[in-house]
Specification:
This protein is mostly beta strands. It has one domain. It is built from no helices and 16 strands. Strands 1, 2, 3, 4, 5, 6, 7 and 8 form an eight-stranded antiparallel beta sheet that branches. Strands 9-16-11-14-13 form a five-stranded antiparallel beta sheet, with no helix packed on it. It has a three-stranded antiparallel beta sheet with strand order 10-15-12, with no helix packed on it. β6 and β7 form a beta hairpin.
């Protein structure tokens, strides 16, 4: 059996700060399928999340720059076949973007083989409006059969409109953005050879309206195929995190 991508659904980016964030599925996930939600939070201090019943937090910590924060969290569950959506609560009002991926063929007893989070910024040029950021390499476990990567981009509400490029070897599953404060993009590594590590890749963020990119955080997870016996580490962990650097101004045509 192989792991297959089925659908992604996303929240609409809230234009105001709220503490209740609702996501509705386009189609009801099938029982036994794997659901993973990438959560991008836009707020100066990370709130406490109320994870909906039946979901498990991936355990990525939130990291912020000294000037402008970006928060990327993740959670997963095995579908019971009756979900129409879910609601995430936050202890304080914030703006949030959520992208949820449904996959079939993932092991239901121990789905997560390995994971990490990476936060970095690398300025690579001054003659164009784009900036490149490292996604970080991902040391997948030997029993990883599928890799998902989510990147959250924050612009601190200065009016930029941003796109996140798709690096080589990756396939875009969904991209959502808001011109006021950033974007969230979910990628699959394709094709992926079971057990391989994923080399570092860079993503380009475009400032179409002259705003600045403040920070990008990428989270990666490796998934086990159904019926496999865990051989790699199962602990949720961060393998590498680097401080992000505020980049200003971006260059505009």
């Amino acid at each position: 059996m192989a792991i297959s991508f089925l659908q992604t659904v996303a929240s609409s980016w809230a234009s105001t700060f709220t503490s209740s964030h609702v996501i509705t599925f386009s189609a009801t996930p099938a029982s036994g399928n794997f659901l993973f939600a990438f959560i991008h939070i836009d707020v100066s201090t990370a709130p406490t999340l109320t994870i909906p019943s039946g979901w498990t937090s991936i355990g990525w910590p939130s990291y912020a720059t000294s000037l402008d924060p970006v928060y990327l969290q993740g959670m997963y569950k095995i579908s019971n076949g009756a979900e129409t959506g879910f609601t995430i609560g936050t202890s304080t009002g914030c703006r949030m973007g959520v992208a949820c991926v449904e996959l079939s063929g993932v092991d239901t007893s121990s789905p997560i083989a390995s994971n990490d989070a990476y936060m970095a910024s690398v300025y690579t040029g001054s003659t164009r409006r784009g900036f490149e950021y490292d996604m970080g390499s991902f040391s997948a476990s030997a029993d990883t059969s599928y890799v998902l990567r989510g990147s959250a981009c924050n612009d601190d509400g200065d009016g930029g409109t941003f796109d996140i490029g798709t690096p080589g070897g990756h396939t875009q599953l969904i991209h959502i953005e808001n011109a006021s404060y950033g974007a969230l993009k979910v990628l699959a590594v394709n094709p992926y050879v079971a057990g391989d590590s994923v080399p570092n890749a860079s993503i380009t963020t475009e400032s179409i309206d002259g705003g600045e990119v403040d920070a990008v955080e990428t989270g990666s997870i490796g998934l086990r195929v159904a019926g496999s016996s865990p051989v790699g580490p199962s602990a949720l962990r961060v393998s590498h995190v680097a401080n992000a650097i505020r980049l200003q101004p971006n260059y505009k045509w």
